[in-house]
Amino acid sequence: MEINAFLKNFADLLDDTDAALITQETVFRDLDEWNSLTALSLIAMADEEYDVKLTGDEIKSSNSLNDIFEIIKNKA
């Protein structure tokens, strides 16, 4: 599993955010587009792309996209 592929997949979930702004250090909750629907899309993406069940609690306990990446990587 590669971080750049994960960041691209995450950026694809967003309609109005420039993909260049999406980095490992991005605090996803600070994005204007972040909401409960985006969180559900992230959960679905983790399931479809990585066959990983990401939970709401795991998202809540994470700050950066790297945190989410590490959770998915460790579960894969």
From TrEMBL:
<feature type="domain" description="Carrier">
    <location>
        <begin position="1"/>
        <end position="76"/>
    </location>
</feature>
<protein>
    <submittedName>
        <fullName>Phosphopantetheine attachment site</fullName>
    </submittedName>
</protein>
<dbReference type="InterPro" id="IPR009081">
    <property type="entry name" value="PP-bd_ACP"/>
</dbReference>
<dbReference type="InterPro" id="IPR036736">
    <property type="entry name" value="ACP-like_sf"/>
</dbReference>
